[in-house]
Specification:
alpha/beta; Rossmann fold; 11-stranded mixed beta sheet; 3-stranded mixed beta sheet; 15% strand
């Protein structure tokens, strides 16, 4: 039955595209629920581009607060410009850029998409540590994905102080950037049919902080805005994601910018008048960190993070299929050229252990010793043990949070769950190129170059890279279209990607050759299972404190 459904649906899409009528150079004019929107016809493929569509509006009197839906268009909105960026220090030229008129989204729709033949939709949320990033085509060029006859939507959301200031009051409750995303998801759900999209066949995806954002949506109580999810190298259990809120942020920023006050409301009113770029620089100079927080409950304020995820079950996952994974050496990016002085001056364990656990100093010393012995044996922590450092960091920052979340999804009854490990190294590995990494396997974000038409990677396109692009985009779009990344064997995809089950932890190795395997990094994952179970009561945010594991601490 599955193959018949696959073949019929595929033929419908092919016929739809073959019969697509000619459109003007301006592209399609669509009539959405918010008004008429004019697109552009792409020059590098058979698709229309609707760029810079505003979905939300930020209150200039309180730019740190919640956004609201953008008003309906009275005239035709010309969706020709994807240059909007929320305030940040951008990652390439390291310049401070952005405007608060940034809550926009881009829709890339094959010319065959129509209301009579709606196409599945893939929504992508960018990463960037909640500090930087945008949805611009410069990085997220759509042509590799839309050629498979899906609609791609990318979106902007606030980052840094504007997106993640958390004051635990109704005016600035926290997680505004994630709530921007939710506003965009609602806009897409209500309007995508006008662009030829299937509102009942939406896959929500993201990478790194974007993947963590997807996971936050899965954990939230929001309505059903998507049916499937793709999480690339990030979950809510990643250690850097959460931070306890405090009122010091606005006060420190205001003082740095010229207003000495102890009144948070006065500080916020003052900061609302400050140039956005100046505020970004001030947040850097004051070493302030803005991340996700657990929100308090306020009347008429819709929360999105109600508790630490370690305490939350995910009942909504019963209606969702999940595809998730990580890259072969996630934290190679952080330690590929580590300096010996850094290793002597820094406790390499602290960042990762303290990210998960609230240990007292004595317990931390003991647990650090246990972890050190597992990853380093009796070797000293120095440049000679760089690979061990990469393994430790990759496990705790990337691999284990993904597998831990995977187990949680299965336990809570996810419809179908697929796991992958991306290991291919070519000329389009995104992070290796941007950081000039010449050693090791695929690191964090390297898969981006094989899913998107990244502008600065254009000169690098070997035949093998082209094949991996076809492999990756076919797997991803098969999942978007059919809920199965390998619905039937082909020359390109000769391996059947088996889902994870309670008894068998299958995963697909995506490299020059595709291969199924089971239980990735099983030794270190088994060690971390025991380590986390032993120290469960010390996990940051964990509620059910008890003493049942205390006796085990001294047995290690």
């Amino acid at each position: 039955m599955k193959k018949k459904q696959f073949t019929l649906y595929g033929l419908l899409i092919i016929q739809c595209c073959a019969l697509s009528p000619a459109v003007s150079a301006k592209g399609l004019l669509v009539t959405s629920k918010v008004g008429k929107i004019q697109g552009l016809r792409a020059t590098d493929g058979e698709y229309n581009m609707f760029m810079g569509i505003p979905y939300g509006k930020i209150d200039k009197k309180n730019p740190f607060g919640l956004s609201t839906p953008y008003p309906n268009f009275e005239d035709i909105f010309e969706a020709f410009d994807d240059s909007a960026v929320c305030p940040q220090r951008e990652q390439f030229n390291k310049t401070v850029v952005g405007t608060l008129d940034c809550l926009t989204l881009n829709i890339y729709a094959p010319t065959c998409a129509s209301s009579s033949n709606p196409l599945p939709v893939l929504i992508y949320i960018f990463g960037g540590a909640l500090l930087f990033g945008s949805d611009r085509r410069y990085v997220f060029g759509p042509k590799f994905l839309v050629k498979h006859n899906i609609i791609l939507v990318t979106l902007n959301y606030r980052v840094g102080p504007y997106g993640f200031m958390c004051l635990n009051n109704p005016e600035v409750p926290g997680n505004q950037g994630i709530k921007d995303q939710r506003l965009a998801l609602r806009w897409i759900k209500h309007n995508i049919e006008a662009f030829g999209g299937d509102a009942n066949k939406i896959t929500l995806s993201g990478q790194s902080a974007g993947s963590m954002s997807v996971d936050l949506h899965i954990h939230s109580g929001e309505e059903n805005l998507y049916q499937q999810a793709i999480l690339q190298s990030g979950t809510v259990l990643t250690p850097f994601l959460f931070l306890n809120p405090g009122e010091d942020g606005p006060l420190l920023l205001a003082r740095h910018l010229g207003l000495d006050t102890n009144d948070v409301n006065k500080a916020l009113s003052f900061l609302a008048t400050v140039d956005a770029n100046d505020l970004i620089v001030a947040s850097e100079n004051t070493n302030l960190t803005f991340k996700v927080c657990v929100e308090q409950s306020f009347e008429n304020v819709e929360p999105i993070v109600t508790d630490y995820p370690v305490n939350l079950i995910t009942p909504r996952v019963k209606n969702i299929s999940i595809l998730m994974g990580f890259n072969e050496e996630e934290e190679l990016r952080s330690y590929h050229n580590v300096d010996v002085r850094y290793l002597k001056d820094h406790d390499v364990f602290k960042k990762y252990i303290r990210g998960f656990f609230d240990f007292d100093s004595c317990t931390y010393t003991e647990m650090k010793k246990v972890m050190r012995h597992f990853y380093f044996g009796d070797s000293e922590v120095d440049v000679k043990t760089t690979q061990a450092i990469i393994n430790l960091a990759s496990d705790l920052q990337g691999n284990y949070p993904v597998l831990r979340s995977l187990r949680k999804y299965i336990t809570n009854g996810a419809k179908t769950t697929y796991c992958y490990m991306f290991g291919y190294v070519g000329d389009r590995n995104y992070m290796k190129y941007t950081k000039n990494i010449t050693r090791g396997g695929a690191t964090h974000a390297d898969e981006i170059g094989y899913l998107f038409d990244v502008a600065f990677l254009q000169p690098f396109m070997s035949e093998e890279d082209r094949r991996i692009i076809d492999v990756m985009t076919t797997l991803w779009t098969n999942y978007v279209k059919y809920g199965d990344p390998t619905p039937e064997p082909t020359d390109l995809l000769p391996v059947t990607w088996k889902p994870v089950t309670v008894d068998r932890w299958n995963y697909l190795v995506i490299d020059s050759d595709l291969a199924m395997a089971t239980r990735p990094y099983h030794q270190s994952m088994a060690f971390l299972d025991v380590f986390f179970k032993l120290n469960q009561k010390y996990q940051i945010g964990y509620h059910n404190n008890n003493d049942q594991n205390v006796c085990m601490i001294n047995q290690l």
